[in-house]
Amino acid sequence: QEIVSGENEEESNGVNLMEFSDEILLHILSYVPCTDLVLNVRRTCRKLATLCLDKSLTHTVLLQKDYKVNKDKVKQLMRDIGKEIYQLNMAGCYWLPSSTIDHVTRCKNLVKLNLSGCHITSLRLSKMLSTLQHLRSLAIDVNPGFDASQLSSECKATLSRVSELKQTLYTPSYGVVPCCTSLEKLLLYFEILDRSREGFMLSGQLMVGESNVPHYQNLRVFYARLAPGYVNQEVVRLYLAVLSDRTPENLHAFLISAPGSFAETGATKNLLDSMARNVRLDALQLPKAWINGSGLLQHLKFNNPFYFSFSRCSLSGGHLIQRVINGGKDLKSLTSLNLSGCVHCLAPESLFRKAEDDIDSSILESLVASCCNLRHLNLSAAHHHSSESIGNHLCQLLSRLKHLLSLALPVCSITDVAANVEKPPTASHLVPQTFGRKVRIGIQTYPRNLGDQANQKIESSVFWALMGSLRFLETLEIIGSSFSSAMPRNEPAIRNSLPPCVRAQNVGDSEVAAISQVTYLQSLTLAQLPNILTGSGLINIGLQCQHLRTLSLANLGMMGKVVYMSALMDMLKHCKCLRDLRLEQPYFCAGAQFFQALSHCSALQRLCIVSRSGTLQSDAVMSFMANCLEVIMCHMFMGESLTVCKNLQQSLVRSFQADRPALNVVIFPLLHEDLTEVIRDVPMRHLDEITLFKSRVAEEPPNLWW
């Protein structure tokens, strides 16, 4: 009886959440969306009513991925705590009507405001900014119809005090840049299309009345990212023209990300010469044409650099070591390095070298030794083949970088050299990686759990050892050096793909299983792994990597059949934290079994499937959407007819749009001629983050914007 009474007393004295200290409760509440705190949680009891309005919780309000927020909730939120908000992030809230912006005027003390991706007119912007006298940081979109002449004098007074501006341009314009006379940080995203919806060619000339000159005298950071198209190049040159006349003395970060060819002109050459004479940089990224064949890097001066991007440049390893890393000197300040597409960056010279030749391990060794604090490294889109020298494999050298948080590698760089030399080609390696008649081959069996895998020789591979050494890695990309997505940005879908590198032919299930050692992994991309036979390694990842939020798989195994479907479905049953899933695979069948497995991903928010000749079952899609209440984006580009796609899209919108205000559905034939017109209507947030395939490691400097 004494024992029973003691147990009852212990149960009655169980832990009560309200008995925790205020500090602990505030930490717990910091994980709850602000809209829930203010509109729901604080109404439960007096103590929570007080804590939910604590300055630590209301100082910064993040709505950028609160897909359940609507106009009424924003209105109530601003009414209740508007005066307490100092930082407001509404980036990507494309579903909110433009009238929602009117309620931001209640936030009189705002210092930082992010409205990227929100619908806003010139007049609404003017009215809002006129009341925000303390604003110092602003992010907005400039859409067709924007008219700077509609900005009031009070609005321009506010803009004159703004020191940080992020501007996404969908039309040729200076936007509000000329009004920002105190700019220290300027981020420009050029998303202007070359043709209008009516098919007319657009010009890069600015609109009438926009001849005001930007003020760059206090500029410290200049960043420009260009989408494909000549109009974007024309407009960015107008922004750069002022910089070429007088380079700001305090400029320490100069970054231009431009796809394709962006030729150097006399004005840009003058700008670079002026930078070489007058400034010391901490971050640098230039178009490849501005670096290739020039001695620019030899003359630029650096202070304590934290970010370098030489993406797609023909920079040799010799130049990298001598001109950037100063002959192997200490460069501990560098935390992010993008060498994507630099095919010769790990070779001493590039003049007589083939892209497939072995790398010079001493160059990588110098890089690793000098930049020992690297957290983000991108070596994708190149053939980095290690030699047979013992201890000098690329994976072995990279394992010394203990602080890595994100890493992108080509598939051919992770294979063991011995495996390529000693292992004769098997039947699976002789299967053509193209579309056509299916060939029946013997399937090698792989163990389905990590314990059996450990008994094989795979744990002795260099890639297995690398994954074991990077226990705190959060983002990993393993992408075939010749991989290209079937759905590019502004062109028709790609019908044929290049074959994988010969060295990549041995990379398959065992290498995928090795990734399961990275237990804190949050984002994983696997593309063009030709030797995937069963996909068993995916199951190990699902079991071990419980923090996985983003998964992107493309062209795994044979191209004529989805050989890993069974393993993928088993994997998805364990991915309780998965939010974004992108699948790109020919002949993918999005049927009832697949969607039933996907329904286990209770946190899933965004789904994108790209599949040439792929099929879908409309009833299965509808059932999946009904069961997974968090899904707000469903993009499927398959081989179905236009009628089937349109009917399914209309059914999804009609059934779920009312309860999911942020719902964005695009169901469309992949090879349809109007695909590019459909793509242009996709919200930039989804298009940039998941729908379009690209390497995202070290794509931008860390903490470029809050």
Total beta-strand segments: 22
Beta-strand percent range: 15-25%
Query: What would CATH call the architecture of the largest domain?
Result: Alpha-Beta Horseshoe
Principal-axes shape call = globular
CATH superfamily of the largest domain: Ribonuclease Inhibitor
> Largest sheet, if any?
20 strands, parallel
Give the terminus-to-terminus CA distance: 60 Å
Report on the structure:
- The structure is a single chain.
- The protein has 706 residues and is α/β, with parallel strands linked by helices.
- It folds into four domains: 144 residues, Alpha-Beta Horseshoe (Leucine-rich repeat, LRR (right-handed beta-alpha superhelix)); 102 residues, no CATH class; 98 residues, no CATH class; 233 residues, Leucine-rich repeat, LRR (right-handed beta-alpha superhelix) (Alpha-Beta Horseshoe).
- It contains 26 helices and 22 strands.
- The chain has a 20-stranded parallel β-sheet, with helices on both faces. A two-stranded parallel sheet has the order 18-20.
- Strand 12, helix 15 and strand 13 form a beta-alpha-beta unit.
- Helix 9 packs across helix 10, helix 20 packs parallel to helix 21 and helix 23 runs parallel beside helix 24.
- The longest helix is centred in the middle third of the chain and has 16 residues.
- The termini are far apart.
